[in-house]
Amino acid sequence: MSQELERPVLFNFTCMEMTNNSSAGVPAASSARLPHITSPSLSQVKHHVHLAGENAIEFDPASSQWAFDQMAKQVRNYSSGYDRMHSLTLLRLGDAFVKQASLEKLGNFASRL
Asked: pTM above 0.90?
């Protein structure tokens, strides 16, 4: 709750599917990505701001188990208390998203959260 505004504040951060390791289908990058996730989460706990997350890159749900695994790991890294992950949004979904195999993978992912 923002004391100045007297309204709830939610910090929505991207990169939830990213790791520092470019293997197992994870796209290569020129920077370490995990510090970009952990730093904001530590700040939101310190300042009592709720945290939400989203993916940063497009992926095919049917063939990108690495993305689901990393997002589940990120979501579970937060407690069930005040600093829990409040929501996760999937962005940049292509046409493959509506295929049966993709929807099954999404269902499996959602049941793990």
From this structure: no
